[in-house]
Amino acid sequence: MCNLYNVTTTRDAVLQFTKAFRDRAGWNEASFDVYPGYQAPIVRVAEDGQREIARATWGMPSPPAYVKNYDPGVTNIRNVSSPHWRRWLGPTSRCVVPFTSFAEPDPASKVEGGRVPNAWFAGNEDRPLMFFAGFWTPWKGVRKVRDGEQEYELIGFLTTSPNEIVSPIHQKAMPAILTTPEEVETWLTAPWDEARHLQRPLPGNMLVIVPPQAKPKPDEEGLLL
């Protein structure tokens, strides 16, 4: 499952693509990797009906049967017919999550004695801005025992069957990816019967394998404007 992705874009690009009205995320990193439990920028429709960029923690609430004294969260969601997930299918619980590349573990490339490396995927070699179809919810609970009970806003991604680019590396699933303003609009506003068709593999000609994103040098880092 996708448990790592990279965001290398500008705040203005996300605002323009999604028609978001405001930025509540305070987002200024030039390039960053996102892992489960990290906070990341999302775009959602706020209570006042305005579209906004916010920050949320990656990992939706787990089904109660899997929770003991803490809940690390569920990053990827596929079985939307489950009663646990159905409560979040409506537009008020949907969001889109900007990314420019995502990773899947690649056991076939593992060197003896080394770690399992990641394969990275993007829209093309230029790593254009794309979006995961996501869900979000406010939540109060324990993510880490040492931190105790806290209030969070949580996110998770919709997944689907892998396309011919991802399946040789990860046979079980790939994220549901949105690539046009029209798809973003549908995901954020349409009834579930209209939006559910976006849970589909991205066509193979719209995804390529890319090297890991190079980290900016200290003198190249700057604010995202």
TrEMBL record:
<dbReference type="GO" id="GO:0006508">
    <property type="term" value="P:proteolysis"/>
</dbReference>
<dbReference type="InterPro" id="IPR003738">
    <property type="entry name" value="SRAP"/>
</dbReference>
<dbReference type="GO" id="GO:0008233">
    <property type="term" value="F:peptidase activity"/>
</dbReference>
<keyword id="KW-0456">Lyase</keyword>
<keyword id="KW-0645">Protease</keyword>
<keyword id="KW-0190">Covalent protein-DNA linkage</keyword>
<protein>
    <recommendedName>
        <fullName>Abasic site processing protein</fullName>
        <ecNumber>3.4.-.-</ecNumber>
    </recommendedName>
</protein>
<keyword id="KW-0378">Hydrolase</keyword>
<keyword id="KW-0238">DNA-binding</keyword>
<dbReference type="InterPro" id="IPR036590">
    <property type="entry name" value="SRAP-like"/>
</dbReference>
<dbReference type="GO" id="GO:0106300">
    <property type="term" value="P:protein-DNA covalent cross-linking repair"/>
</dbReference>
<keyword id="KW-0227">DNA damage</keyword>
<dbReference type="Pfam" id="PF02586">
    <property type="entry name" value="SRAP"/>
</dbReference>
<dbReference type="GO" id="GO:0016829">
    <property type="term" value="F:lyase activity"/>
</dbReference>
<dbReference type="GO" id="GO:0003697">
    <property type="term" value="F:single-stranded DNA binding"/>
</dbReference>
<comment type="similarity">
    <text>Belongs to the SOS response-associated peptidase family.</text>
</comment>
